[in-house]
């Protein structure tokens, strides 16, 4: 089994994960559709990056592409994603297998169907641990029990031999987390990990995830459409719309002082934020259809600040403050005069 | 009543219905005494036989006697095997018990069906998995056409062609008969063609379904090697349709062997059935059909029980 | 939007944007699929030759010519006749006999499958639509009969009734209607719970009309696929039964009987066995390929692989 340290390009001093100019297009009946369009971001150890956006904004596809989980065709992927200097886009199956689990791991929204129904949970948790370390079944089982205890599954030593259908949704998500952490990865991508859970369990699972990430100095990439979660957990946020990043920056400043009409509208639609102005904001119009994007700004049809110049060209990300970027053609006139509080 | 018990009872009822049907239908072809003794028999001899064999009793009584015999393992005696002196007075002494004739032939049929399965199951699964791993690739197209070819070929014709090629032209293998492993190669290959195709098809479609499920992405994301994902994660979940198909094909092998056994003069139950049909040996026909039907039903039951292994919900939800 | 939440709107209207696939897409797809195209061409040729045997066959089917006995394929006889596939032990042209044999084999297959389909679909749709006792009886019968060894039962019944064209069809009907019944019942169960059937019932349609006018047209595609497959299955079964002497009886000559007849000469005249077998093989294979294709292009999940214009994948570095 290949070890990460021996892969070409490996550099212990390189940033943990750097994604640059990543695009994903799909062929469809209606022609080529860009699900992800020139997205860039990076994460550092111990940092939590939240990717926020509606369904279909490309946030999941971005991470699937980084993990090498999109099959091509139909997906066509371009750009770069470097894990410790190792190129992930277009990497061979053996390279990807070596990095997955030990370098990067991912958990998904629907934990119940993301677990193999025919295999015992203990086996699933310890599977790659056994395969990589050559551990026998007994020590794999012990490792699985330890991990299940770490994610606070009660009476782990008995439940290790149960099947996924014997667990609740919240417990399944804990098992997913245990599974993803089995080889102590450096990056954990969590794709809406609490969306499919009961509201009462959502918080528990999220707190567990945050605590584990903190303990292990994990870089956590959290995909969510829940702005409350983002505000609580994230060090940085990236807001995506129609396959593009429209605003990035540290969580506090971005939420306190959004520099993009879409982020503004999102925050305005949150009840406790809206209470400041006593008015609930809504985002009018429908989410964009990727195959029928307008020539200019994708958010134009729903934008409060739409102007004639917005029809002409796609806005590019530009600096909107310290360590912040925003993709709005009217960035300077709309957001520049406001005080930027860091 | 437990599920298992209910399944077994259903199967036994079905078996009894089949045996009864064969008994009554067998009477439609005419007087059994005439059948036994042949058209040259004198009326006196015929009458004597009817009395001895109980053929003058009402039909329902004969049926009850027959069924009672079956429960003690007595399916009657053959009209042809062991008949040396005609007209016979005491059938039981002269004709050989049909059940023992059938059971004697079973091992040959099992060997043939077993060899065919030993070829077809691994090959069919491998082909189906290979095709499903890369849909619409060249490998997929080849597997699709090959598996459809296996289903489309006439088995006995394939056997004849193999005989012409390997036995007559090349002289590598015997044309037929029963003996060492060389005798089994051609019939086993002939029998395997269809199950290879069917198993490959069902494996392909079941694997395509499974490989599209979320847990496959999970396994890839946690770094499980590709071949393990395919052969361990997906195949175990795809097992139920595959095992069902293997069961169906096993049943088909037990009966489909009829033609192949005939072509290769392989002394199994299939050849026995053909011989007993052409010689109108009614008790033997009845016993062979009963035995084969029982085997087929047993295979179905086995398949049913194997589901528990592959789908833990089934056994556990019933157990708790 | 009146919903108050801190979540973003979700976009779930993918289905409403489904692209409609027209017959042109199917034609284009089949023209690019050489294997299916071959299968289609073979079946069309088979139908043409079967219907027009009198005009298209190069020789008389019963034209004895003892001077030209057992000639190999491509041979020219003493009288100067050309024999594409050779001749049999009576000097009859094998190609001509194959064309006439197709009539018997194909009509057994088509008639048997059609009758099974009519009985099976009727029983299945009624069972699925009405449910209850009727469904119980039909499905019990279906399950029971499906678990019987069908070749064996067919042999036994033909042994009792005697062989021949009519009895063969009868046996196929008895042993194959269940396949259609099981599928039709499943489809009917789905249809009954669908909006279009419930709307028809709500408008006061009688059950017969609902089944014939509303359910049947919507479940036709999978049934036609099964029908195609069953023709192939029955042609193969007919060959086996006829070979054993329990199927079609001489002077009718099916492909299976021709193989049986050629078996005596297999050491000297392989073509007498090879070509009838190949005829069955290609017929069954073509039917299977067509059914396979039809199933793939009507499957909403898989069909993009067949219908979407094919592009070379570009692996980005």
Could you provide a short overview of the structure?
The complex is a heterotrimer of chains A (342), B (320) and C (317). By secondary structure, chain A is α/β, with parallel strands linked by helices.
Overview of this protein structure:
The complex is a heterotrimer of chains A (about 350), B (about 325) and C (about 325). With about 350 residues, chain A is an alpha/beta fold. Chain A has 13 helices and twelve strands. In chain A, the strands form two sheets. In chain A, strands 6-7-8-3-9-10-12-11 form an eight-stranded mixed β-sheet, with helices on both faces. In chain A, helix 5 (about 135-150) packs across helix 7 (about 170-180). Chain B is mainly α and about 325 residues long. In chain B, about 45% of the residues are buried. By secondary structure, chain C is mostly helical. Chain C is built from twelve helices and two strands; from the N terminus they run H-H-H-E-E-H-H-H-H-H-H-H-H-H. Chain C has helices at about 25-30, 35-50, 55, 95-130, 130-145, 150-160, 165-190, 195-200, 205-245, 255-260, 270-300, 305; strands at about 75, 80-85. Chain C has a two-stranded antiparallel sheet. Chain C is globular, with a radius of gyration of 25 Å. Chains in contact: A-B, A-C, B-C. Chains B and C meet through helix 1, helix 7, helix 8, helix 12 and helix 13 of B and helix 6, helix 9 and helix 11 of C.
Compile the SSE list and pairings.
The complex is a heterotrimer of chains A (342), B (320) and C (317).
Chain A: E1 17-28, E2 31-43, E3 48-52, H1 59-66, E4 75-83, E5 86-87, H2 93-99, E6 104-107, H3 111-114, H4 121-133, H5 137-150, H6 156-159, H7 169-180, E7 187-191, H8 199-215, E8 219-224, H9 227-233, E9 236-241, E10 244-250, H10 251-256, H11 261-268, H12 271-274, E11 318-321, E12 324-326, H13 331-335
Parallel strand pairs in A: 3-8, 3-9, 6-7, 7-8
Antiparallel strand pairs in A: 1-2, 1-4, 4-5, 9-10, 10-12, 11-12
Helix pairs in contact in A: 4-5, 4-7, 5-7, 7-8
Chain B: H1 3-27, H2 32-37, H3 43-53, H4 59-71, H5 91-94, H6 98-133, H7 138-152, H8 155-169, H9 181-211, H10 214-221, H11 226-237, H12 239-263, H13 269-278, H14 282-310, H15 312-319
Chain C: H1 23-31, H2 34-51, H3 53-56, E1 75-76, E2 82-83, H4 94-130, H5 132-146, H6 150-161, H7 165-192, H8 195-202, H9 207-243, H10 255-262, H11 271-298, H12 304-307
Antiparallel strand pairs in C: 1-2
Helix pairs in contact in C: 2-4, 2-11, 4-5, 4-7, 4-9, 5-7, 6-7, 7-9, 8-9, 9-10, 9-11, 10-11
């Amino acid at each position: 089994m290949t070890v990460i340290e021996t892969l070409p390009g490996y550099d212990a001093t390189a940033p943990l994960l750097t994604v640059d100019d990543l695009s994903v297009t799909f062929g469809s009946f209606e022609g080529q559709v860009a699900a992800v369009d020139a997205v860039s971001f990076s994460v550092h150890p111990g940092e939590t990056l939240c990717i926020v956006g509606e369904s279909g904004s490309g946030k999941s596809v971005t991470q699937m592409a980084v993990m090498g989980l999109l099959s091509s065709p139909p997906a066509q992927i371009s750009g770069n994603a470097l894990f410790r200097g190792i190129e992930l886009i277009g990497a061979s199956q053996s390279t990807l297998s070596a990095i997955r689990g030990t370098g990067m791991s991912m958990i998904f929204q629907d934990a119940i169907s993301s677990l193999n129904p025919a295999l015992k949970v203990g086996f699933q948790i310890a599977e790659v641990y056994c395969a990589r370390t050559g551990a026998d079944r007994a020590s794999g089982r012990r490792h699985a029990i330890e991990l299940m205890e770490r994610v606070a599954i009660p009476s782990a030593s008995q439940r290790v031999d149960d099947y996924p259908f014997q667990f609740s949704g919240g417990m399944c998500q804990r098992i997913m987390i245990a599974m993803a952490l089995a080889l102590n990865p450096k990056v954990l991508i969590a794709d809406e990990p609490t969306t499919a859970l009961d509201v009462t369990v959502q918080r528990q699972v999220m707190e567990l995830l945050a605590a584990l990430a903190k303990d292990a100095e994990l870089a956590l990439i959290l995909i969510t459409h829940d702005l409350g979660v983002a505000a609580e957990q994230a060090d940085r946020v990236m807001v995506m719309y129609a396959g593009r990043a429209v605003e990035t920056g540290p969580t506090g400043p971005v939420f306190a002082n959004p520099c993009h009409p879409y982020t503004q509208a999102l925050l305005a639609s949150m009840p406790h934020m809206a209470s400041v102005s006593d008015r609930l904001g809504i985002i009018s119009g429908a989410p964009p259809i990727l195959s029928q994007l307008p020539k200019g700004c994708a958010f134009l049809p729903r934008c409060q600040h739409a102007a004639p110049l917005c029809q002409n060209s796609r806005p590019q990300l530009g600096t909107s403050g310290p360590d912040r970027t925003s993709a709005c053609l009217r960035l300077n006139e709309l957001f520049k005069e406001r005080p930027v509080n860091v | 009543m437990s599920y298992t018990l209910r399944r077994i009872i259903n199967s036994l009822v079905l078996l009894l219905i089949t045996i009864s049907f064969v008994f009554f239908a067998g009477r439609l072809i005419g007087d059994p005494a005439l059948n036994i003794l042949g058209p040259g028999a004198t009326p006196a001899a015929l009458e004597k036989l009817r009395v001895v064999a109980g053929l003058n009793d009402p039909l329902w009584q004969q049926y009850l006697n027959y069924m009672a015999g079956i429960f003690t393992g007595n399916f009657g005696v053959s009209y042809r095997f062991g008949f040396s002196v005609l007209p016979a007075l005491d059938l039981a002494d002269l004709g050989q018990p049909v059940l023992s004739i059938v059971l004697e032939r079973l091992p040959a049929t099992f060997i043939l069906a077993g060899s065919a399965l030993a070829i077809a199951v691994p090959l069919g699964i491998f082909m189906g998995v290979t095709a499903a791993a890369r849909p619409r690739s060249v490998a997929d197209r080849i597997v699709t056409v090959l598996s459809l070819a296996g289903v489309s070929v006439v088995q006995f014709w394939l056997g004849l062609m193999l005989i012409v090629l390997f036995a007559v032209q090349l002289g590598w293998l015997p044309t037929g008969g029963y003996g060492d492993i060389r005798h089994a190669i051609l019939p086993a290959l002939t029998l395997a063609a269809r199950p290879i195709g069917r198993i490959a098809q069902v494996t392909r479609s079941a694997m395509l379904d499974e490989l599209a499920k979320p847990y496959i992405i999970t396994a890839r994301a946690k770094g499980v090697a590709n071949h393990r994902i395919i052969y361990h994660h997906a195949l175990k979940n795809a097992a139920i349709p595959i095992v069902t198909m293997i069961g169906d094909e096993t049943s088909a092998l037990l009966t489909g062997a009829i033609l192949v056994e005939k072509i290769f003069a392989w002394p199994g139950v299939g050849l026995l059935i053909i011989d007993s049909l052409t010689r109108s040996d009614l008790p033997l026909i009845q016993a062979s059909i009963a035995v084969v039907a029982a085997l087929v039903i047993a295979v179905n039951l086995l398949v049913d029980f194997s589901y528990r292994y592959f789908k833990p919900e089934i056994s556990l939800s019933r157990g708790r | 939007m009146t919903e108050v939440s801190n979540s973003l709107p979700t976009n779930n209207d993918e289905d409403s944007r489904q692209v409609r696939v027209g017959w042109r897409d199917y034609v284009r797809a089949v023209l690019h699929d050489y294997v299916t195209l071959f299968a289609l061409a073979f079946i069309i040729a088979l139908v043409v030759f079967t219907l027009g045997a009198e005009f298209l066959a190069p020789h008389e089917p019963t034209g004895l010519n003892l001077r030209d006995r057992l000639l190999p394929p491509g041979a020219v006889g003493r009288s100067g006749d050309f024999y594409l596939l050779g001749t049999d032990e009576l000097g009859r042209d094998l190609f001509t006999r194959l064309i006439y044999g197709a009539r018997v084999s194909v009509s057994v297959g088509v008639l048997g499958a059609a009758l099974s389909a009519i009985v099976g679909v009727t029983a299945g749709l009624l069972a699925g639509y009405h449910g209850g006792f009727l469904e119980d009886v039909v499905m019990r019968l279906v399950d029971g009969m499906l678990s019987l060894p069908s070749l064996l039962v067919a042999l036994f019944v033909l042994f009792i009734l005697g062989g021949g064209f009519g009895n063969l069809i009868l046996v196929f009907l008895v042993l194959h209607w269940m396949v259609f019944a099981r599928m039709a019942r499943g489809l009917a169960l789905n249809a009954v719970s669908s909006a279009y059937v419930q709307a028809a019932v709500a408008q006061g349609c009688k059950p017969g009309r609902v089944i014939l006018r509303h359910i049947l047209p919507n479940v036709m595609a999978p049934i036609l696929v099964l029908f195609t497959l069953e023709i192939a299955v029955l042609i193969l079964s007919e060959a086996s039964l006829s070979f054993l002497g329990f199927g079609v009886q001489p002077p009718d000559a099916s492909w299976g009987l021709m193989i049986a007849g050629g078996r005596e000469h297999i050491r000297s005249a392989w073509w007498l066995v090879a070509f009838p077998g190949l005829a069955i093989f290609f017929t069954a294979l073509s039917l299977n390929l067509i059914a396979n294709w039809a199933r793939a292009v009507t499957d909403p999940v898989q069909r993009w692989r067949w219908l979407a214009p094919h592009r070379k994948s570009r692996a980005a570095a």
